[in-house]
Amino acid sequence: MSETRTPVRPTGRGAARQTVTISFAGFNRAWAAWIGDRLERRGVRVVYVRWDSPAEETLVDLLRGLSLAEGRVLILVSERYFQLGPRTFEEWNAALREVVAPDPGKFAAVSVTSTQVPAAIAVLAPVDLTNMGADEAERRLLDRLDLPTEARPSAEGSRGPRFPASMPEVWGGVPRRNTRFTGREPVLNEAYHLLQGSEPGAGVITLHGMPGVGKTQLAAEYVYRFGSEYDVVWWVNAESRVTYRRVLAELSTKLGLATGDEYGERLRAVRDALRRGSPYSRWLLILDGADEPEQIWDLVPTGPGHVIITSRNPEWGEHNSKLLEVNVYDRDESVAFVRRRAPRLTEQEADQLAEALEDLPLLLDQTAGWLNDSDLSVEDYIALLEDGVDPDVVKVSADFPLAFQTAWAILLNKLRETVPESVDLLRLCTFFAPGFIPVRLLREMSTEDLPEQLTRLFDDPLLWNKAINQLRQYSVVRLESHEAGSEEIPSPGEAVYLHRMVHQIVGKDMPEASRREFIDVVRRALAEADPGRPTDTRNWEAYAELVPHLKYADVLNSTDRKVQNLVLNCLRYMWWAGEYTSGWKLGRRTVNAWRELLGESDTRVWEATHHYANLLRSAGRFEDTEAIDREAMEHLRRGGERSLEYLRAANGLGADLRELARYEEALELDDWLYPAYRELLGEQDSRTLNALNNKGYTLRLMGRYEEAMEADRQTLETRRLVLTGRHLMTLFSEVSYSIDLRLLGRYAEAESNNLRTVREYSHVGGLGSPDALRAQLNLALCQLRTGERASAGALLTQVLDGYERKLGENHLRTLSAAVSHSCFNREHGDIDLARETSESILARYEQLLAEGHPFTVGARANQALVLRNVGEREAAHVLIEQALAGMTAAVGEYHPYTLGCAVNASALRNLIGETESAAELSRTTVARATETLGRTHPLTLSARVAHAADLRGLRSRQQAEKVEQEALSDLEATLGRQHVHTISARARNRPYWDFEPQAS
Fold first, then answer.
1. Nearest-angstrom CA–CA distance, 355 and 456
2. Are 311 and 289 in contact (CB under 8 A)?
């Protein structure tokens, strides 16, 4: 064999650059990209030629065609290069000796495989690039092409593809590579070009097609071919929203993001990091099995990276995704795949099998796998397909095409003949959700009272592994790691992946006796896996894993108490974790099923109803929850109005009424609930104190701040006595009391108290929880009132960011922080940003709340101030008048919300020249504010200063002077001579009022 080396040389007359043509199998595209990048950085022109080997052309002709390529031809030696066709090693040896050996200078090679290749490859003198680092591999590559090997500076700002033997910085959940992957080159290339050519934020494609066509395998192959161009590759099971949120949230740790334990917060942090491209901008997210776009479309990240979705549903095209349809194999792909899967079959036999199974990849994979191990000929197998099998042995649902039914019946019979336990295990898997199935739960459960054959299967590790490996060998299941980011080879004891179509086929028409037996086993396994404390965030991962399987195990029709407790705990978990929509849907199904199964009077029905209402209320369905809670109260009244179940339902109704802004009704209920709890449980019971806390909240919403402060003070003092000073409920009451102080104008006292509470929160769980953010929001508003604008602005931004991460943009608490942040920007920051956010806030309130809700009306009042500041006086005037009328209708003319709107309305009337109307409104406002809040309350003082300005507008200077001096005197006495409000009034700056929603 010649060892002569021919340097890379210019080709063609006057060519200035050296040229290398890289010939590679599509499977090794990542190597080709890296090698090409290394060469281009040294000034070499690179031409990429993907090697194909159509059966109708001889290898000699194909190689001669390759020898005509420009420059030196560099062949990437791998087993896949020689399997295309497929061709025998004898054919390759003959062709290499005939074409390459006479002209060794034209060809060169590098080897990226350690498996056996044709012996005649030696004529290419390949150098091995496996089992080494990138630097050594590059040195060997350059040496083989006789290029200089001294270090070259990297191209500035260009990172290029990653060395294929090294993993991306973040890698998780990706299935192992299918070494038998065949064809699909046009789809892979189109997917690549669509993603690479997309604008930032639009790099989303959906691989859609019927079950069994290989959408998941295609996405996995894309990852391995093009993954070297990404720093983050994260695979997410997207078959349910709960699972999707859990797995995507796990990415937060891998990205090094500082977040709390709740999935909602971690998920929002991940989406924000991906959107910003920090710390990584080259990311690839695969959402596998996303068949219901409406469940997760709103959670699909945007940003500089790319998203690949696999789905049966083409409706993804309506959600900012480009569609790529995945069809069954072309016949030549089917033949190539079958021959790779079953080498004993000839090309003709492979063609016959492909035609019989309609070129469906999943069936080809499973059937060819066991045919290769069987003595059955393809001809006999096809005869079985045509003649059918005994339906009494194995039944397969008639919902599937005849070829599918019969092929699966044959396969299941084959499994039962070889390892009968594998069929039992497969049937058990159909009572879990399709996709990721945690079969370890079966092995971890108690085997007491289980059927004998299952006890033997679960207790014998060898038999267990044999059953799973038999299913895996025939591609019925694939092994999966338990952890999303695990890079270890999965154990047969952990989890398997069951394709949805296989799940449906096996699950249909199972004998009724087997169905009852197996479903009971899976229910017990799920119940025994219940951690038991859904409020503990450390258990949320376990609950997120259990929830998707409840439906398929039909747990709602179980009379087992442990199974029913699992359902209730899952509902509680979904509320605590923020899974409101999925949660209320499960809650509704639970209530309906248990009413029929257990009867209306069963306590578990009403406990489920309670959780259902909580989830529905948190999802913003307040009118629906009112109806549910009223129905519950009506039913539970039969057990007495002093029963704890009845009081719990009444407490839920109070929450509904507060959210619906029906404050008078809520207070009437609070006035009854608190004494009822106190009489039944005593003054120090937590439920009694919760009732008193709710009463304080209702009073605050009604603008009765003195009474609210008294209720909150009483709650706080009792909680301090019964609990500890750092107990979370005590800290919550501390903040409520500080809010009351601030709303009464006692700013310094409120700030001092609240600052201490924020410090306490930092010691007991950190500052990221919703209640800790509530404390910080009040502290920021206290700082704003005392003139500490810089620190207030920074804290408002921090709080809003925290709420958006923790609860999402549409939660009422988030909107409360957004309102204050927008108001701050209007007066002290970016007016354009203030306008944009104010409009967004108003739109979200209009979507969440009923027309006429005071929070929506208040947001309009704030928007009017923005319009005033940008010079749109007429529009501002129209909007504030609408707000004043709307607030009067919502909460009455004496409520502080209405009085604040009136202060702003009088200012705008004055501004557009309606001075008499402005003066009359400000006079009336002063009188009502004095009656409601007192003469020296800050809102009353603002109204008095405003009235003085309106009197000056009427040329009533003497009266205006008197009103102004009295107001200034009271401001100095109440807030101090140097307070920002006093200084502003002294400078005759017209006061305004910011609407501030009390969301908790």
1. 41
2. yes
pLDDT confidence tier of residue 418, bands split at 50, 70 and 90? confident
Beta carbons within 8 Å of 692's beta carbon, 6+ residues apart: 674, 711, 714, 715
Residue 610 phi/psi, 5° resolution?
Answer: -60, -50
H-helix or E-strand containing 235? strand 232-237
Helix (H, G, I), strand (E, B) or coil at 865: helix
SS (H, E, C) 748-759: HHHHHHHHHHHH
Q: Alpha-carbon distance 223 to 219, whole Å?
A: 6
3-class SS of residue 699: helix
DSSP per residue over 789-857, as a string? HHHHHHHHHHHHHHHHHHH-TTSHHHHHHHHHHHHHHHHHS-HHHHHHHHHHHHHHHHHHS-TT-HHHH
Token readout for 496 is 């398997």
Choose among 65, 124, 57: nearest CA to 91: 57
The per-residue pLDDT for 912 is 93
596 vs 614: CA distance, rounded Å: 22
Q: pTM score, two decimals?
A: 0.70
Taking all residues of the chain, what is their mean pLDDT, rounded to a whole number? 87
Report helix, strand or coil for 311: strand
Lowest average pLDDT, out of 271-275, 668-672, 703-707, goes to 271-275
Residue 382: count of CB within 10 angstroms of its CB: 16
Cis omega (within 30 of 0) for bond into 7: no
- CB 726 within 8 Å of CB 763: yes
- Is the Cβ–Cβ distance between 688 and 682 less than 8 Å? yes
Distance of CA 548 to the CA centre of its chain: 15
Local confidence band at 438 (pLDDT 50, 70, 90 cut-offs): very high
What are the tens digits of pLDDT across the range 620-652? Answer: 888 899 999 999 998 888 877 888 989 999 999
Q: What is the C-alpha separation between 906 and 891, in angstroms, rounded?
A: 19
Say how far apart CA 99 and CA 62 lie, in whole Å.
10
Concatenated DSSP letters for 259-270?
Answer: --S-HHHHHHHH
Task: Name 283's Cβ contacts closer than 8 Å, sequence gap at least 6.
Answer: 170, 230, 231, 232, 233, 234, 274, 277, 303, 304, 305, 306
Render pLDDT for 909-951 as a digit per residue (tens, 0 to 9).
999 999 999 999 999 999 999 999 999 999 999 999 999 999 9
* Signed CA dihedral, 487, 491, 495, 498: sign only: positive
Q: What is the DSSP letter of 130?
A: S
Residues 6+ apart with CB under 8 A from 462: none
| Calpha distance 443→430 (Å, rounded) | 16
Strand arrangement, sheet containing 72-77: 45-50, 19-24, 72-77, 107-111, 127-128
Has residue 866 got a pLDDT over 70? yes
**How far is the C-alpha of 677 from the C-alpha of 388, rounded, in Å?**
70
Confidence check: pLDDT of 154 > 80: no
Preceding omega of 102 cis (within 30 degrees of 0): no
- DSSP, res 26: G
Q: What is the 3-state secondary structure (H, E, C) of 889-920?
A: HHHCCCCHHHHHHHHHHHHHHHHCCCHHHHHH
Nearest to 786 by CA among 500, 980, 551: 980
Q: How many residues does the chain have?
A: 1000
Half-sphere exposure of 762 (CA within 13 A, CB side): 7
Nearest to 747 by CA among 716, 796, 784, 702: 784
> pLDDT-based confidence at 395, cuts 50/70/90?
very low
The encoded tokens of residue 935 equal 């003469």
- Cα within 13 Å of Cα(165), Cβ side: 15
Q: Which two tokens stand for residue 254?
A: 């891998």
